Recover the amino acids of this structure.
């Protein structure tokens, strides 16, 4: 008989039965990725018709059951509900006895670390916070996008290897985030990704207003280059009229935006001020040009009844 010690399942999870509570855009995609790694999705819960369709598309044949039944069938449970619903869900599952000792309980919220799972931890569950830094569509393309995707990982130290192993099995790259830094980590991702969508959508609307037939085709190469330059060079990639100190051009922009798209003016001014601050701090915006520019940004006009300089 072999006397070799068996590996601790906390170090690398074995093949697991997987359940999903909350069939939004994230949960079914992660479960499908785990299925590709050899795990077995066995149950999913969803309320809306859209959730049920996503579950059927990404996890065909996996039964739709109530949340408590998902936990009863699963060794690994993905809690993929909105951030504000997560604490109440965890408390409810723990209070009703749905959580089993030794069960891996994973949430995908960027805002929370592992402590939000404390009620389940007291019931014997193994708590993991695995947040994919990716935007999801709710379609099979999401599974492909997980390849190389970074995950913000937070867990008790003794579960760190298990958490990282699951991320790697999904094709992701684990990035350890301390519990106390989770809100800032999530704010940083929202600032970049969520606001980017708003900016791009506004830009496309303005280009259509200006008569551009295919604004997406015009913006694609420009924004792709800007993003690549920013990721490579940071603030050194700043360009455009604000970074150059072209106060007249900026005033003309504001005038046109007030005329054609007044709802965009506040965002334009806020981003221009932030850009000017960073350009000044990094020596890109010359101080002698900054005064007029900052005056335009402070008033939102050139001081001549809204006419462009």
């Amino acid at each position: 008989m072999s006397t070799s010690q068996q590996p601790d399942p906390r170090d690398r999870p074995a093949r697991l039965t997987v359940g999903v509570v909350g069939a939004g855009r994230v949960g079914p995609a992660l479960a499908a990725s785990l299925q590709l790694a050899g795990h077995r999705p066995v149950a999913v819960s969803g309320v809306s018709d859209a959730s049920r369709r996503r579950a059927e598309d990404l996890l065909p044949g996996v039964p739709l059951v109530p949340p408590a039944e998902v936990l009863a069938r699963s060794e690994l449970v993905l809690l993929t509900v909105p951030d504000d619903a997560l604490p109440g869900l965890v408390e409810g599952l723990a209070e009703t006895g749905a959580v089993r000792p030794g069960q891996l309980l994973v949430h995908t919220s960027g805002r929370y670390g592992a402590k939000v799972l404390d009620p389940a931890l007291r019931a014997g569950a193994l708590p993991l916070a695995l947040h994919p830094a990716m935007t999801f569509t709710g379609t099979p393309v999401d599974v492909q996008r997980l390849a190389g995707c970074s995950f913000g990982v937070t867990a008790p130290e003794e579960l760190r290897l298990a958490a990282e192993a699951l991320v790697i099995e999904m094709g992701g790259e684990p990035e350890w985030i301390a519990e106390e830094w989770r809100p800032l980590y999530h704010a940083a991702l929202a600032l970049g990704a969520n606001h980017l969508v708003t900016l791009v959508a506004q830009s496309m609307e303005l280009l259509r207003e200006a008569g551009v037939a295919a604004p997406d085709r015009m913006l694609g190469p420009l924004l792709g280059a800007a993003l690549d330059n920013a990721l490579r060079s940071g603030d050194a990639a700043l360009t455009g009229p604000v970074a150059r100190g072209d106060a007249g051009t900026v005033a003309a922009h504001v005038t046109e935006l007030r005329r054609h798209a007044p709802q965009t003016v506040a965002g334009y001014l806020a981003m221009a001020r932030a850009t000017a601050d960073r350009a000044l701090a990094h020596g890109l915006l010359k101080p002698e040009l900054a005064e007029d520019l900052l005056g335009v940004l402070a008033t939102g006009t050139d001081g001549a009844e809204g006419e462009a300089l």
